[in-house]
Amino acid sequence: MNLEIRFIGVGAVKSGSSWMASLLGQHPEVCMSFRKEVSYFNRLNLNGTSNPSSYYDFSYYEKFWPKNNKIKGEVSPQYLFDKHAPSSIKKIFPDTHILIMLRNPKEVVYSHFLYEKLFNRSIESKLSLEKAIQTNSYLLETASFSSQVERYLKEFGSDKVHVYILEEALKDPSVFSKKLYSDIRLINVDFKPSYNSVNQSKKVRSNLIHSLLVFLSRLKKYIEGSRWNSLFDNIKQTRIYISLVQSRNSVLDKNVTLVKKPKMSLKDNKYLESYFKNDIEVLEGLLDRDLSVWKASD
Fold this sequence. Notes:
It is a single chain. It is built from 14 helices and seven strands. The chain has 298 residues and is of the alpha/beta class. It has a five-stranded parallel sheet, with helices on both faces. Strands 6-7 form a two-stranded antiparallel sheet. The termini are far apart.
């Protein structure tokens, strides 16, 4: 195994992990995976479906970086939620740094809900947040951080697990980027990246593009459930297929538009505050940090 991974960002979903990846990728000493989210170490996706990539040979994972002497890393928010990911990462990269970006869980749930509703369209457009939670339990589960963070602390120890709070990072991005670069042992910790946000609410601009993506997704799902699956698995591990997926993602990125995030209702706000109150208190104990900013009503 020739690939050395200095750091792995494990999430959380809808908590600024894309922004963190952008700050890392801009640094001249760093080489990020060319796919935004490799998602190799999680056995399950966020919605509970199986992730076939986790069963591929390690040679598949290595294909996401060029051969150079830069410090390599990746960010995949699925890793924080998946119960098996910490031990899977530890087995291959026992000394890697684990980067965790967290956000007020009620905001995570609401942002995740809007993303699935407006962008992925996996949640019906007419569904309220309350109804969506009833049929999509992962919306709450992915934001229950205490048990997720605890798994990584047990595997890697507090010296290798770096937990950041998005609300604090956004107050002074330059202080945050310096801390981030210092934590993964970069030389030039004073490097100043662009701090533009890359994780705003968005939707697919073109219905035609979305319909095409839905068709391809359904075709992929059909093949994976057919007798052609073993052949398809081999194809997905080739550089050509990986490049095609990258091209698809580039097309998608060019066909999205930002949308104004609607305000969460008072009822939903109160419900989520109550639901996550105990989990936040447990997390405070784990991290020995005051997270009262997450408990106060807007």
